[in-house]
Amino acid sequence: MTQDELFKKLVAHCKEYGFIFPSSEIYDGLGAVYDYGQNGVELKNNIKRYWWDSMVKLHENIVGIDAAIFMHPRTWEASGHVSAFNDPLIDNKDSKKRYRADVLIEEWIAKQDEKIEKEVEKARKRFGESFDEEKYRATSPRVAETAARRDEVHARFAEAMNANDLGGLRQIILDCEIACPISGTRNWTEVRQFNLMFSTQMGSTAEGANTIYLRPETAQGIFVNFLNVQKTGRMKLPFGIAQIGKAFRNEIVARQFIFRMREFEQMEMQFFVRPGEEMKWWNQWKETRMAWHRALGFGDDQYRFHDHEKLAHYANAATDIEYNFPFGFKEVEGIHSRTDFDLGNHQKFSGKKMQYFDPETGESYVPYVVETSIGVDRMVLQVLSAAYREEQLENGESRVVLAFPPALAPVKVAVMPLVKKDGLPDVAQRIIDQLKYDFNVVYDEKDSIGKRYRRQDAVGTPFCVTVDHQTLEDGTVTVRHRDTMQQERVAIDDLYRMVDDEVSYRKLFRKLNL
C-alpha cells in the first residue's frame, strides 16, 4: 500500500467513525472547511488540554488569555499583515488550476532529495555490510550531479524568496521543467502576490461601516494585551502569554485534508524576554517543544527541525518542527524569534508606550519575543496519521486500530454487557456511573462482543470492560486492552485506579522534565 493510498484510507476512516466531516456536506461541501464529529472534537479538545496544561500549569511564569477575533484594523497595519501577508501564486493555463509557486519549487527540491536517498539505498543493497555511505555520497557521480543541481536551485530559491522576486520564482519553475500535476503541461502564467486575509464590514449601516479583518493569527491579541497582563499579573521578565483560538486565511491552495484550511485553530505562546537574550530562549524553546511532541511516543525519528530559508518580516530566527506525514515531512509547529517588531510597531501605530520597566536594571525597554505556534488541526492530523494502523491477526482476521496515547483518546472506556438480559445491563450502567465524572465512557450492547471490540479499536478506545455472568458472582469484569488485545479479570472496585493510571496526562507530563 502506497502512502497516498494510506492517506486516502485515513481520510475515509475519519468520516466513517465520527472524527471529521466535510462542512455543509448536504450542500456539496465548502472547499477546505471541515467539521469535527463526536470523536474528533474529543480528540481535538484532549490535544488542546495537553498543550494548555503543559504551558500554563507546568510553567509558573506563563499565563493564558482569550482575545477577541475582531480587532481594530490598525492592528493589522502595525503587524505588517495588510502589506506583507501574501502568497506567491501561479496558474496553469491548461488546467486552470492555481498553485503556490514556492510550494511547487519546494516539492521539486524534495524530489531531488528522494532521488539521492534512492541511489544510496540501491548501493546499500548492492554492497551489503561493506557499504560505506559517507564515501558513496562523496564519490558517486549520479549523487553528486543530483546534489549539485538541487543545491543550485535551492540557493536561487532562497535568494528569490528573500528578495520577493516573483519573476525569479517563475524562472526557476520553467528551468526545472516543473509541470502541472493535473494537465502535465508547463504552460504557466506570471507569479502574482495574493493577500490571505478575509475582510468584512462592521457598522450599523453600509455607508458608515468600517472594513475589519478576521484575524489571520492569534498572536496579535497577545501583543496588544501585553501590558494589561503584565501589570495585573505583576509579571516579571521572562514570562509568557498563551492562547488557543480561531484564525482565518483565504488559502487559495488549500489541500491535504485538514492540513491547510481556511478556518483553523492555533495554540500560540509568546514569551517576552530581555533584548539580547532572545537566542538563548529560542534555542531552549526549540528543545522544550520537540520534547512535547516526542513524549507522545510516535517515534523520535519521525520529527525533525527545518530552519526557514526566508525569514518573516518580524523574525531574526525561525525553525519548524516537522512530522513525517503520509505525504512527507511537513510543519506542525513553528518557533520564531520575533525581536521587538510587534510590540515596537504597536507602540508606534497606537501612540501608547509598550515598554517594560525592569526593576533589576532600572531601565524601561520594549521586550523581545520568542513565539511557539501550533496549528491545532495539523496536530490532530498528525496524531491521527501516527495512530492509524492496519493489523493482520494470528487467526487470519484483520483490524484497524487507532493507537492513540491513552490521554488523547476520545473515549477512555467502553462498557459492554455480554448479553442484554439477566441484569447485566444494570451492572454495566452502575460501572458507567462510577467512571463518567472523570472519564469519557460509552455503553455498547449491539452486535457480538468481537464486533464491539473492533468498533472500539477503530476509534482508539484504550479499555473495553465486559460485564458477564461471573460479574454477578464475584464482582469482577473482563478488561480488554486495545494495543495488546490481552484480557484480564479485574474487580469493579479497582477499575477507576486502573483507568486513571493509564489515561492521566501525568504520564505525558513526566516525560517533559519541566
From TrEMBL:
It is an enzyme of class 6 (ligase). The keyword Aminoacyl-tRNA synthetase applies. One of its GO terms (molecular function) is bis(5'-nucleosyl)-tetraphosphatase (asymmetrical) activity. Catalyzes the attachment of glycine to tRNA(Gly). Belongs to the class-II aminoacyl-tRNA synthetase family. One of its GO terms (cellular component) is extracellular exosome. It comes from Alistipes communis. Keywords: Aminoacyl-tRNA synthetase, ATP-binding, Cytoplasm, Ligase, Nucleotide-binding, Protein biosynthesis. Homodimer. It catalyses: tRNA(Gly) + glycine + ATP = glycyl-tRNA(Gly) + AMP + diphosphate. This is Glycine--tRNA ligase. Its EC number is 6.1.1.14. ATP binds at residues 249-251, 259-264, 331-332, 375-378. Substrate binds at residues 100, 217, 264-268, 371-375. SUPFAM superfamilies: Class II aaRS ABD-related, Class II aaRS and biotin synthetases. It is found in: Cytoplasm. CDD domains: GlyRS-like_core (cd00774), GlyRS_anticodon (cd00858). InterPro entries: aa-tRNA-synt_IIb, aa-tRNA-synth_II, aa-tRNA-synth_II/BPL/LPL, Anticodon-bd, Anticodon-bd_dom_sf, Gly-tRNA_synthase/POLG2, Gly_tRNA_ligase_bac, GlyRS-like_core. The gene is glyQS. PROSITE patterns: AA_TRNA_LIGASE_II. One of its GO terms (biological process) is diadenosine tetraphosphate biosynthetic process.
